[in-house]
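Hi again,

Forgot to attach this to my earlier email, sorry! This is the prediction with NAP bound. I've pasted everything inline since the attachment limit keeps bouncing my files.
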Amino acid sequence: MRISFCCTDTASEPWLQGLRAALPTAKVLLWEPGAPLADYAVVWAPPQQFFDEQPQLKAVFNIGAGVDALLKLRLPPNALVVRLDDAGMSVQMAEYVCHAVIRHFRELDAYEADTRQGNWSFRKPRSRADFPVGIMGMGVLGERVARSLVGFEFPVMGWSRTPKSVDGVQCFAGEQGFADFLAASRVLVCLLPLTPETRDIMNHANLSRLQSGAYIINVARGAHLVDDDLLALLDSGHIAGAALDVFRTEPLSAGHPFWQHPKIVVTPHTSARTLRSESITQITSKITAIQRGEPVAGVVEPSRGY
Ligand code: NAP
Ligand code: GLV
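C-alpha cells for the complex follow:
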C-alpha cells in the first residue's frame, strides 16, 4: 500500500516518520510531481496537479476539519474525502470559546485596563441569564463547545441543519429555526463549515437580529462574516465586541481595521490546531479500517460541502 503526503505549510518529516511508524508495511512518500500512484493521500492545501496525477486514490485524508479549500479542487471521482474528526481539536475549541465568552462576560479586559492604571475598583456583577450564547454549527466542535458552556451555566442555544438534542442546550434547526435562534442569542459563536449556504451568514441583516449588546466569536472561516457589516454594527453600538480567529484573507492584511479596533480581539487562526500525533493515529486507523472494508467516521459529502 502506498500513501502520498502532500501538505503545504507543514513540516513533512515528522509526519512521514509518524505515518511510517504507525503503518510499517505501507510505503509513505512525500509527493513530488511525477511520483508513483498511491492508494491513499494525506493532504493540506495540495496543488491541483497532485490530484491530476493521482487518479486511483481510494481516500484523501485532510489534516484539518474544514474541507472548503479542498472541495474547490477536482478530486478523483471515486476517492472518499475524510476530514479530521476531532483528533484533539474539540477540547481546544472549547477552551478558546469559553475563554472568549468569559473574558467578555466578566469584563476582564476592562479590569486589566483598570489595574494597569493602579485602580482597585469593582464592576457590578452581571447575570449569565443576560448572556445567552448561540452556537451556529452543532457538529463535532460545536457540540463540545455547547456542553462546555453549559458547564459554566450560561443559557446555551445551538443551530444546525438537521435537528439535534443535547442536554441543557436549546436546539434550533434549519432555515425555519434561524430567526428564533438569532433573536434568543446575545453571544454568537460561528462553528459552521464554509459552504455556499453559510458564506456571508454573519451579515448586517442577521447580526441585527441578535440581542442588543451582542458579542461575536468567529472560529470557523473568515468568509462567514461580512467585515464591513460587523464594523458598522460595532459603530452603531448594537454589537459590543468580537473575538475573531479567522479572516477572509489570512494572514489578516496589514492595515485591516480589525487589527487595531478597540472592540475586536484578533488571534491568528489558532483556536483549534491540528495535533500531529492524534491526527496520525486517527488517519492510520481509518486506513486500516478502509482496507478491511469497514466504514469510517468523518467522510465528507462533497454535494453538501462538508
Ligand atoms: P462538523 O462536525 O461537520 O459540523 C458542522 C455543523 O454545521 C453541523 O452541525 C451541521 O449541521 C452544521 N451546518 C452545516 N451547514 C449548515 C447550514 N446550512 N445551516 C445550519 N447548520 C449547518 O464540523 P466541525 O468538525 O464541528 O468543524 C466546523 C468548522 O470549524 C470546520 O468546517 C472549520 O471550518 C472550522 N474549524 C476552525 C478551526 C480553527 O482553528 N479556527 C479549527 C477546526 C475547524 P448537521 O449536524 O445538521 O449536519
Ligand atoms: C482549521 O481551520 C481546520 O479546519 O482544521
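The domain at 90-266 is CATH 3.40.50.720 (Rossmann fold). The first strand starts at residue 2 and ends at 7.

That should be everything now.

G.
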